[in-house]
Amino acid sequence: MTVGMQPDGNLPSAVSTVDGADPLAKLIESARGWHGVQLGVLGFIGFCGVLKMGAEAPGPDWLQWLATGGSVGAFATALWSIVMVGKVAWPTGDPAAPADPAEMSGQLRSGIRTTIVSVALMAFAGLSAWWPTEQAPSVEVSLGNGGKACGQVAEGAPAGAMWLNTAAGETLEVHLTTVANVRPVASC
């Protein structure tokens, strides 16, 4: 931290940030607080990068490329904002030449704005995971013994069978040798 000299040529005995006597000290203290927030944002971006919404990404390819670009952009802007605010929080300038509070204040504002851009980019990238997907059509299956089943066809059934997810939340296994008719329906 750089401390200016008193008009009589002596260094101040103590820097008070409570009464607002040293605007540079208040600026540095604020930057250090924002630096902690930025590290939290960077951690959030890293955490979001680890999460996966499923085996297959929803939405078209162009959306996935935009989401990837948003994630990379969020990471890059978060790193840049940390550097900008860090230079204000821990100034490394010449101790003989006092730092300019107006210049440091502008740099802190730019760093905060860049942090907000980083969060917005990550939010955009995360929202791309909620692209609407088409649901499987519902079908009504008539069995040879007169019984009926209705639901959405599920993947992964063994050979010679099909699975139906019913409205009650059950998964029925229907053996294809017992099926008399299958017809699509609007709902079950």
What does this structure look like?
The chain has helices at 23-50, 61-89, 101-127; strands at residues 138-143, 148-154, 161-165, 171-175, 179-185. With 188 residues, it is an alpha+beta fold. A hairpin with a 4-residue loop joins strand 1 (138-143) and strand 2. The radius of gyration is 31 Å and the shape is rod-shaped.
What portion of residues is helical?
40-55%
What distance lies between the first and last C-alpha atoms, to the nearest angstrom? 71 Å
Spell out the helices and strands N to C.
HHHEEEEE
Percentage of residues in strands: 15-25%
Shape label: rod-shaped
Order of strands, main sheet, comes to 4-3-2-1-5
**Strand tally, please?**
5
Task: Give the C-alpha Rg.
Answer: 31 Å
Counted by DSSP, the helix tally is 3
Q: Main β-sheet, in a few words?
A: 5 strands, antiparallel
Structural class: alpha+beta
Mean pLDDT: 80
In terms of per-residue confidence, which ranges show pLDDT below 50 for 5 or more consecutive residues? Answer: 1-6, 9-18
Q: Please state the oligomeric state of the protein chains shown.
A: single chain
